[in-house]
Amino acid sequence: MAKSASKDRAGADESAAGTAEGEVLPESYEAALAELDALVARMEGGALSLEESLAAYRRGAALVRFCQQQLEKVEQQVRVLDGETLRPVPLNTTDSAAGGDDDL
Length: 104
What we know:
The protein has 104 residues and is an all-alpha fold. The protein has four helices and no strands. Helix 2 (29-45) packs antiparallel against helix 3 (50-84).
């Protein structure tokens, strides 16, 4: 019984350090960035206790990881689109608008 209690506590410590504050992540990159900006402002204000600063740092690290993952996903999508769909745009766009793309 003592082993499972200590194991549960260790698991809780690992999950808190892993993603921070119950793993609740923002819905979007923009929301994560806004939360991160607010968090940095609070930390720079100097009014947080040591424990609050540590919790803010952990949350910030989780938000940075989330933002990096979102950016990687978008970068991968751009790579897929860049394969065949995206092409350089001609400098003279009036000719292509007049029907120059019919040769495709």
